[in-house]
Amino acid sequence: MTELSRRSFVRLAGVGAASVLLAACTPNDSISIPPPRSVPSADFFPDIDITLIAIEDTVQIRPGVDTVVWRIQGELLKGDEGTVEPVENSYLGPTLHLRKGQRVRIRFVNELPEVSIIHWHGLHVPADMDGHPQYAIAKGETYCYEFEVLNRAGTYWYHPHPHGRTGPQVYMGMAGFLLVSDDEEEAAGLPRGEYDIPLVIQDRTFDDQGQLVYEGDGMMDQMIGFLGDQLLVNGQQNLIVPVATRAYRLRVLNGSNSRMYKLGWDDGSPFSVVGTDGGLLEEPVERPYLTLAPAERLDIWVDFGDRPVGSSLNLVSLPFSAGGLDSPQFPVLTVLVDREATDNVSLPSRLSEPNFLDVADATTTREIVLAMRMMRGWTLNGRTFEMTAVADEETIKRGSIEIWEFVNMGGGGMMGGSTNLPHPMHMHGESFKVVDRQTNADGQGAWETLSQGVVDEGWKDTVLVMPGQRVKVLRRFGDFEGLFLYHCHNLEHEDQGMMRNFEIQV
Ligand code: C2O
Ligand code: CU
Ligand code: CU
Q1: Which of 85, 114, 117, 385: disulfide with 497, CB 3.0–4.6 Å?
Q2: CA-CA distance, 275 to 298, in Å (whole number)?
């Protein structure tokens, strides 16, 4: 924000405070004006109207034990049946099935003991519909979102975004899938309905009473991020996915606070990847394993048609060493082939027309240096998050196409190389395309343990930036002006302030 607009913001804030005082003096309560965005607007006519309520609840994650969680419950007020699909036996929020072009109203009601706000990760919505932390609401309050689904079909998701508390709130259970469909995706002929399975991978730690333990405040967690010692898929331990002898679309989301995965089938079968964060690829790509950093999604095509009924297949996370982060091998889930299928489909050779931007149309290249700074923790170009502040170099002209280069060249202090960690960098608003990735000599070893599982071919909103790397992404900053966020999606890094606003200006 410029000096001028900062001053005018202060002035506006002053006016707000004055009107609050006036309201308090008004003898008649009934004329008090509701806070902004708490009620539907009269001139928005939604196709879909949903209430999402965040509550404290218990679920059975371990047999016979009620674990306290924070859960998002959904209710469909208007729209096609199946729009709000609860996830059984889980703390997960309902899966929202939306379609491109739909006008959507979501009333978020916070019944938790602290402030919260929900962000639609990957969606291209106006600034005040995006779940910016400045809009966090207190217990008992409602935030009314209204937007049109502009995104192409893809695997998006939602989670809280209050400043400093995103990590613990996601950890307590608040997250869900938001699946967008469109005509192009339908035409691709991918498996649908019960053959299209969203899977979110998360790690948690339980205490002796079976309650969730979050130690995101410790010194080590500040540095590396929270790592749990139990793996959950869709909120369950040792998940078994029953399948028929046919092709499936599995949508895999890393919903962990900071853990990365290197997913492999235990029989060594390769993966056919059909989609990334921002929807379908142009054509399927094959990978020996899948590298998935926090907030990233990969849609895969798996055909169980050749497997005998009764056989099973395990998905594991393979061992890797990513600079300051080592990960052993551990099981993720088991697929059990439990029935003959009556039909099958084959993998399409063309999936979609991604319409990527042209690098030649970029007018600016901005460099974002990711570094640990003494006394300040993780920073972006030396800065940490300030609620509404924007540096000059963070203001963008609406409609422009730019290259942002994320540079992860190491610590800049404290413990030197050992602070050199991967950072999954996320930008709000429109998806981007990874257009360049350079690795220096120091980063080569860590990169090689994960590189073959990275998919830079599609639309993305979160990109893994490994130690010793410079990664360039190309995107448009169109349509909506205002404040949007870019940040590391390691939630402990984000909560510490490894997050900044950018402002799109007319
Ligand atoms: Cu998934 Cu700013 O977040
Ligand atoms: Cu986001
Ligand atoms: Cu980070």
Answers
A1: 385
A2: 6
Q: How far apart are CA 80 and CA 83, in angstroms?
A: 6
DSSP state, 391?
Answer: -
Residue 276 dihedral angles phi and psi, to the nearest 5°: -125, -165
Radius of gyration for the alpha carbons in the chain, expressed in angstroms and rounded = 22
CB 506 within 8 A of CB 399: no
CA distances from 128 to 38, 61, 190, 366, 480 (A): 12, 35, 34, 25, 10
Residue 62 to residues 9, 212, 255, 336, 353, Cα–Cα distance (Å): 50, 11, 20, 21, 44
Q: Which two three-digit tokens encode residue 355?
A: 């319409």
What are the tens digits of pLDDT across the range 377-387?
A: 899 999 999 99
Number of the ligand 1 atom closest to the C-alpha atom of 121? 1
d(CA 39, CA 36) in angstroms, rounded, equals: 8
Shortest-distance Cα residue to atom 3 of ligand 1: 121
Confidence of residue 221 (pLDDT cuts 50, 70, 90): confident
Strands (E) in 342-431, as ranges, are 364-373, 377-380, 395-397, 400-408, 423-427
Residue 399 is classified by DSSP as: T
Domains and CATH numbers, the chain: 24-181 (2.60.40.420), 191-339 (2.60.40.420), 359-505 (2.60.40.420)
Q: How far is the CA of 427 from the centre of ligand 2 (A)?
A: 6
Taking the CA of residue 159 as reference, the ligand 1 atom at the shortest distance is: 1
pTM equals 0.92
Count of Cβ atoms closer than 10 Å to residue 192 Cβ? 12
Measured CA to CA, the distance from residue 223 to residue 492 in angstroms comes to: 8
Residue nearest atom 1 in ligand 1 by C-alpha distance: 121
**Helix then strand then coil, % of the chain, to nearest 5:** 15, 45, 40
Q: Which residues line ligand 1 (CB under 6 A)?
A: 119, 121, 159, 161, 295, 426, 428, 485, 487, 489
Mean pLDDT, rounded, for 463-475? 97
Distance in Å, CA 161 to ligand 1 centroid: 7
Give distance in angstroms: CA of 32 to centre of ligand 2.
Answer: 34
